[in-house]
Design a protein that fits this description.
Radius of gyration: 18 Å
Order of helices and strands: HHEEHHHHHHH
Strand content: under 5%
Strand order of the largest sheet: 1-2
Distance between the termini: 45 Å
Shape: globular
Number of strands: 2
Largest sheet: 2 strands, antiparallel
Helix content: over 70%
Length: 232
């Protein structure tokens, strides 16, 4: 299976799970958002080639976070959108701290190979996670405020417009901050700029794929009560 097909498959699966989480209730959506941010920290260091450009494998997960945020603002208000910042940062801090502390444990000979693999895998995690946190913080502030402003300006109409314009602006900011912090000094300038461009392009494509799911959220919302409501 080509990287391009894997990219489409990963995007559709992740966006579908975001919509399912929305259907199950707000707390499920927050949980999936946190999981996607942890996946960014884990796989953000994996560089791959998609559509002829070098980019990192965590872009799909990050774009899914923006869909989750837009769902929260759209259906629950700006305040719930802001909660994603605190939840996202806390999730990243927990992952960085616990993963690095766990690596300090002494290892028995029976699991030496697994420990070596973990050391290699998570060696660059703090830098990737830090880059992700800083980019996430500033990009989400822009994303939330711009989305909410456009929603009010259009009187709740033109859903596709506010979804994609906020993605275009906020994802550009995120890509510039994240790749500059995560890979400056590691990649050559040419590859770094290519990674910023490709990462931005990939997230815009996933954002476009996410727009139909945002429209679908109004359909699933009118179905039977969410699980977290029905169980009360």
């Amino acid at each position: 299976m080509t990287n391009e097909l894997l990219f489409v498959l990963t995007s559709v699966v992740d966006l579908s799970l975001i919509l399912i989480a929305f259907r199950l209730g707000k707390s499920w959506l927050f949980a999936l958002l946190a999981i996607n941010l942890i996946l960014v920290s884990i796989f953000g260091a994996k560089l791959t080639e998609i559509f002829g450009f070098i980019t990192n494998a965590g872009n799909v997960f990050y774009a899914a976070v923006f869909l989750a945020t837009h769902l929260l603002i759209e259906h629950y208000g700006k305040k719930e959108g802001y909660r994603t910042i605190g939840i996202g940062l806390l999730s990243a801090i927990l992952f960085i701290t616990m993963s690095q502390l766990t690596l300090l444990f002494s290892t028995s000979s029976e699991s030496a190979s697994a420990n070596d693999a973990m050391q290699v895998l998570f060696k660059g995690t703090p830098r990737i996670a830090l880059a992700s946190m800083i980019a996430y913080f500033f990009a989400q502030i822009v994303n939330i405020n711009l989305y909410n402003f456009l929603k009010n300006m259009t009187g709740g109409k033109l859903l596709w417009f506010r979804d994609n314009l906020s993605n275009i602006v906020a994802q550009f900011l995120d890509s510039c901050i994240f790749f500059s912090i995560a890979f400056y000094g590691i990649l050559s300038n040419d590859i770094l700029f290519q990674s910023i461009f490709a990462g931005y392009l990939i997230k815009l494509i996933v954002g476009l794929l996410g727009t139909p799911f945002l429209y679908l959220s109004y359909r699933v919302k009118t179905m039977s009560p969410p699980v977290e409501v029905a169980l009360k």
